[in-house]
Structure to design on (242 residues):
């Protein structure tokens, strides 16, 4: 990768993707709320959907959490409890297991959407394109595992990637160190950022609703009365006014 492309993809492109991700999601919620849904097709091939969806969501939630914590936790915070090499092995084992579950589930969902004529006719082009992009991203993620295992002794690549991600979050981008990162990691990062870029234009926006439901845990209890008690209360109120 040339120096200019390296600078663009790892210093400029992350902020483009994050801006479109946040502002695009807000704009879609404001202007097209009726499209803010997952467009479920659960009435067709329910068993395959149930297995595929459960495996995919279990795997992808673990991967999102693992990538976030793994990349954005400073080395100084965990070095007291675990070495960089041990952290890399933990990421390889846990990420490999979660990635495999996610891959199996997503492959089932992709097969269902492509080879079932009824589902294919009711699917948008973006649905199929999104599944293909996510499937390719998973393949790239699993491809990085042998490279990570080969570098488990010093975990150099992992430390470089973590430092790059932390600099992006703290608005101190530095793409120079990414010039020496191996190509599978670079492709995995670029495609991962592209998923955030596509996020507001696909059914992925329903993830925001999933996080929004957590607010219900903080709501006060509702007072629910039976119909008879409600009628009696209204009757007593009328009598009191008389």
């Amino acid at each position: 990768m040339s120096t200019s492309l390296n600078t663009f993809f790892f210093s400029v492109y992350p902020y483009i993707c994050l801006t479109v991700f946040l502002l695009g999601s807000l704009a879609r919620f404001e202007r097209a709320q009726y499209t803010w849904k997952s467009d479920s097709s659960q009435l067709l091939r329910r068993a395959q959907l149930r297995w595929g969806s459960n495996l995919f969501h279990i795997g992808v939630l673990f991967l999102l959490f693992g990538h976030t914590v793994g990349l954005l936790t400073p080395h100084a915070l965990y070095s007291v409890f675990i070495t960089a090499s041990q952290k890399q092995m933990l990421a390889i084992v846990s990420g490999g297991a979660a990635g495999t579950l996610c891959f199996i589930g997503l492959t089932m969902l992709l097969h269902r959407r492509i080879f079932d004529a009824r589902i294919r006719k009711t699917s948008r082009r973006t649905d199929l394109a999104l599944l293909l992009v996510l499937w390719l991203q998973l393949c790239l993620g699993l491809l990085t595992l042998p490279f990570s295992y080969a570098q488990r002794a010093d975990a150099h690549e992992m430390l470089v990637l973590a430092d790059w991600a932390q600099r992006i979050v703290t608005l101190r981008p530095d793409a120079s160190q990414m010039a020496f990162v191996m190509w599978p990691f670079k492709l995995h990062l670029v495609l991962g950022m592209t998923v955030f870029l596509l996020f507001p234009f696909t059914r992925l926006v329903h993830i925001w609703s999933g996080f929004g439901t957590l607010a219900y845990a903080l709501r006060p209890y509702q007072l629910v009365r039976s119909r008879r008690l409600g009628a009696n209360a209204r009757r007593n109120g009328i009598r009191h006014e008389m």
User: Anything to note?
Assistant: Residues 238-242 have pLDDT under 50 and may be disordered.
